Amino acid sequence: AAAGLSYVGAYVINTYKSYDNFLQDKYAVLPAVIIVCVAVVMFAIGLIGCCATFRESRVGLGLFLAIILLIFIAEVSAFVLGFVYREKVKTDVQGTMRSVFEQYDGKNPESTVVDYLQEQLHCCGVKNYSDWTTTQWFNSTGNNSVPLSCCQQDVKNCTGHLDQPQEL
After folding, report:
1. Structural contact between residues 98 and 126, judged by C-beta atoms closer than 8 angstroms
2. Distance (Å, whole) CA 123 – CA 119
3. What residues have CB less than 8 Å from 4, skipping those under 6 apart?
4. How high is the pLDDT of residue 109?
5. pTM of the model
6. Which residue segment(s) compose the domain that 153 sits in?
7. Average pLDDT value over all residues in the chain
């Protein structure tokens, strides 16, 4: 289990590099770091449990049980806090994403990240393609279209025009 958590944590940290412009708060990677730390702690706890079982130590097994109970309490607390603060996190991420979309000009690094995100997640805008109508880029181009990264990958000759929403 510890090896699996280590892999997941490392994967999230590596993936974070692609989306760090959207998640300007450096604490956004904190859950992945916590996952890696939990993996290390789980390995140590598993080692304690194995040694206590192998030696048939009542003190070691009691310590192992106490640690497992603390972990269970921490998991329940984390679930409750995640449930309570889910809307705040959603609002914060959407606000940051909107500000990055506002900076889109098709050339700057934020624009590259927006295009990458839309292509990888097969989406357009924060909620949908109509989010682009309020951006500076949309108003400055004047051609009533969204970036080509909004186009479906299997559609040929997509222009990004809003009069063909089925292609977005």
Report:
1. yes
2. 7
3. 39
4. 73
5. 0.54
6. 89-167
7. 80
